[in-house]
Design brief:
Blueprint: H1 18-21, E1 28-33, E2 38-44, E3 53-60, H2 62-83
Antiparallel strand pairs: 1-2, 2-3
Length: 107
């Protein structure tokens, strides 16, 4: 090999099965931790449903959780540069856990 040539670096390759590639929709997450791991439960809350349905649980070592946080921060910064600031609803007063509000009864 010529001294001026650099070896080509290969990117990380991942295998994504058709089932996993569909993804799981989540509009609610619960994150907890112990000394050794972080646990993220991704769930879906639907209007009028009394329970959230957990679709996926991800368990991470603390170092990987911190790397995920950095990657999310980086991606949110890039997203907001391209599409504008992500606005969060103000928290305060009477707020339900579900982002849909309290269902109103009909007679």
């Amino acid at each position: 090999m010529d001294n001026n040539q650099k070896p080509q670096q290969q990117g990380l390759q991942i295998d994504l099965s058709p089932e996993v590639s569909k993804g799981i929709y989540s509009n609610f997450a619960i994150i907890s931790h112990s000394k050794n791991e972080f646990v993220a439960d991704f769930a879906m809350l639907l209007p009028g449903m009394p329970k959230a349905q957990v679709g996926s649980r991800v368990i991470l070592a603390p170092e990987h959780a911190k790397r995920l946080l950095a990657a999310l921060n980086d991606n949110i910064t890039r997203y907001e540069k391209e599409f504008g600031k992500i606005e969060l609803p103000q928290q305060g007063g009477a707020r339900t856990v579900a982002p849909f509000g309290t269902p109103k009864g009909e007679a």
